[in-house]
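Follow-up to my earlier ticket, as requested here are the two runs.
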Amino acid sequence: MAKIIFFQAHPDDLEFNYAQLMHYLAIKSKRKYIIKIVSITKGEFGLPGDKYDKFKGKFLAKVRTRELYNAQSIHGISPKNIFFLGYIDGFVKFNKDFINRIADYIRKEKPDIIFAPEPIYTWYYHMDHVNTGKAIFYIIYNKLIDYIPILYFYSSLSPNFFFPFKKEDIGLVNQLLACHKTQYWLMKYMMLIYKPIMRLAGRKIDGWKYAEPFRRIYFRKENKKKYKISLITRIFSHFFSSLPFYKAKYPQEILNKLKKEKKQK
């Protein structure tokens, strides 16, 4: 039975990127899979503006954890298959500690397939996402684990794998998003681009369907020529990386405390 691990930076990242694929693997597929979810953070600071400061931190982390559990129950995935790595929303750094923590988890679980956020050619250049994908690539590429799992990136500007679904299945995404009530302020805007992105990806499928796009990474030298990044993709990825994109908003008191703790370490 194949084991699949879905890595996400925040508790709501899967809904826009994996909804149809996860539901198929967990519910519809005749073949059975072991599915696990790793959330790097609990989204402690995922609310906009100072007026929400009193909710940020541990309280919001508990709420968003419950939202994630509720959403994944729609796929039939239980909380025991959901693991939090314990990093703080907005403070995910690409460093030795982070790489080793993820490498240890992969060694323990030995997944056959890994899904993670695109670290380079992405339209969603949040550093928590970027550093998560970068760490996983680094681990496999530099052979910090003793095998090569299949790796797919989501939110990629240069996908090469597409999972088709029907237009009426978009209702599943709305159902999942309804579980993340604290994130509606952002999701209502993200949903505006969801349909166009999935429709555009559907061009690769016969009959112009909808599709979830992913980028499969080829590590073996003999496979590297299979896939090249286009110039237009490089230009767009450079553009998105230059934007002051989504970042967690911190109450100054908590931010000062985190900085102080960091200095003490």
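Run two:
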Amino acid sequence: MAEVYKNLIDGQWVESSSGEVYENRNPANWDEVIGIFQKSTREDVEAAVEAAQRAYRKWRLLPAPKRAEIIFKAAQMLVERKEDFARDETREMGKILPETRGDVQEAIDMSFFIAGEGRRLYGFTTPSELPLKFQMSIRIPMGVAAIITPWNFPMAIPSWKIIPALVAGNTVVFKPATDTPLSAYNFVKVLVEAGVPAGVVNLVTGSGAVVGESLITHPYVKVISFTGSSEVGKHIGSKGASLFKKVSLEMGGKNAQIVMDDANLELAVDGATWGGFGTTGQRCTATSRVIVHKKVYKKFLDMYVERVKKLRVGNGLDPNTDVGPLINESQLNKVLSYIEIGKSEGAKLLIGGHRLTGGEYDRGWFVAPTIFADVDPNMRIAQEEIFGPVVSVIPADSLEHAIEIANNSKYGLSSSIYTNDIKKAFIAIRDIYTGITYVNAPTIGAEVHLPFGGVNQTGNGHREGGHTVIDIFTEWKSVYIDFSGRLQRAQIDTDEIVKVE
């Protein structure tokens, strides 16, 4: 019988007040139940937020280097348990084991990196315009942070949010995706074992409609960090703004890889294959558009199709598998519907375009890696986020034309260009309007110590990763210390000659 996992509220593992649970199943084998998780209520959220609010009073006063030492210890524990956690993640999310190892490694990297910020959390000083006066800026924590994360990176993305929130002095209520609660449980359990005090981190599983909505509207929640769809992000942003909360949104992408006529085509094909079909295309940074110069268009397509034909689809725990299943039946149906849209729009289907059936495929949500060619940039399959193993290949006349096509999107997360011309590379860096640009690499592969995020409808201006993530979870306070012993009026007394003592 599958293990029953509980919520973490105020340091205690407890059942939901509803008494209801739900099953977490393997997308590669729907017959396998990974675990039983709590179907939480508004009352559970209330208890978790109140616990976090109480814990905040002491946690914020613990010196930041001491908070960071706990996180450093957690990172070391993640290293020790990496393989076990990766296997759990493959079972509940589906992507291949090398990728889930990378997911856990990203949580390790983020934890070590942000632990170092505990001895920085830099403010700055400036000279005053008045004598005998000192001024500086400092960061202060905000309070309770609501963390709402997706299923495609169920350990990495929570680490991007929870770790900096804690080091900055906030407390957390964490709502993971309903499809991947075990990875969330594993991550939170490590934090508890590393010494995070009761109430500082709370885990509440359940639906977005109940748990998520209760979190974003709770008056004690001061900051909301969300990664997910643009539709849900728009709702959270609007609701959070109406309640004067700080909201960080990281949402969709329709990322383009440009291949110029002077590119190393073998390398470009490798990039398009990994970027388009890694994680079964279920990344916000996935390479869903490939824009190819007309001079090498046919040659690139021939090479690309031959490369994708060799991809092996199956259970992510099988070392021979290159591409795992989609996360659930709903996502499977969405991807299949977009394939039909592509056909109806007149795009040329080169490979794939169907659900895989027979044998182990009948127990999971598998779609053949799919390439459409001769795609018009305004087709729906070139404009809308599919979040599956479907790539649109678009011809371009020139570098300028390719950049114009790349920028023809409501999103703006990631981009890449393959070229051996340094001038073209720097023009692309300058003119492509995205938060991330790669040169001679696919649109996926961000590292934790640089800012991560996008423009347009990809986000709302905040950046995760790097030291910039601290801005999400802190407020700035300016401090003025006047030791002149008399009233000094800024902007008024500056024209007078004042004796400096």
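The only thing I checked on run two: The chain is about 35% helix and 20% strand. Let me know what else you need.
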